[in-house]
Design brief:
Blueprint (H helix, E strand, L loop, with lengths): L6 E5 L5 E3 L2 H7 L6 E5 L6 E5 H11 L7 H10 L4 E3 L6 E3 L2 H6 L5 E7 L2 E6 H23 L11
Antiparallel strand pairs: 1-7, 2-6, 3-4, 3-5, 4-8, 7-8
Length: 156
């Protein structure tokens, strides 16, 4: 899958259903394969993986030695609350109640592309996370991207 693009504001109904924007559905490709929804490791949000992306992640995780306690602990925590989900015929995604609680999702949500996955945030928490990261973003960008040199596309 190519990198996903966009940030979308949506509404969740009382049952946790979210109508996916048409432009996002087009980017996600085949909806019939289903998706995996999980808790984020670092933030109070959810991560939506296509089955293809989830299988890639599981191939990496499957290489971990399960006889190393830290690896076992990581796998358990990483997969805690993981759910298989589908997009229904009307284009809605049902977020299970336990994941709604984890992400503190109220009514207004943000679907934010994060390279090959979609982050699902409560709108207020998303705005707080973006606002709080603004001051540090220049330093973070320099630290993370500052030493990369890629002659192929001219971006360094």
């Amino acid at each position: 899958m190519d990198a996903l693009i966009g940030t979308y504001e949506c509404k969740a109904d009382v049952k946790g259903r979210v109508m996916l924007p048409t432009s996002l559905k087009k980017q996600l490709g085949s909806l019939e394969d289903g998706f995996v929804l999980k808790r984020s490791v670092f933030q109070p949000c959810l991560e939506l993986y296509s089955m293809k992306e989830w299988n890639k992640m599981m191939q990496k995780i499957n290489k971990l030695n399960r006889f190393v306690k830290k690896n076992n602990d990581f796998i358990r925590r990483f997969t805690a609350g993981v759910k298989m989900v589908e997009i229904d015929a009307t284009g809605r995604l049902l977020i299970p109640k336990d994941l709604v609680v984890f992400a503190q999702i109220d009514k207004d949500i943000v679907l934010s592309s994060a390279v090959s996955i979609i982050e699902i945030w409560d709108k207020n928490l998303y705005e707080d996370a973006i606002d709080n990261a603004t001051d540090d973003f220049a330093d973070l960008a320099e630290e993370v991207m500052g030493n990369l040199i890629d002659d192929e596309d001219g971006i360094s």
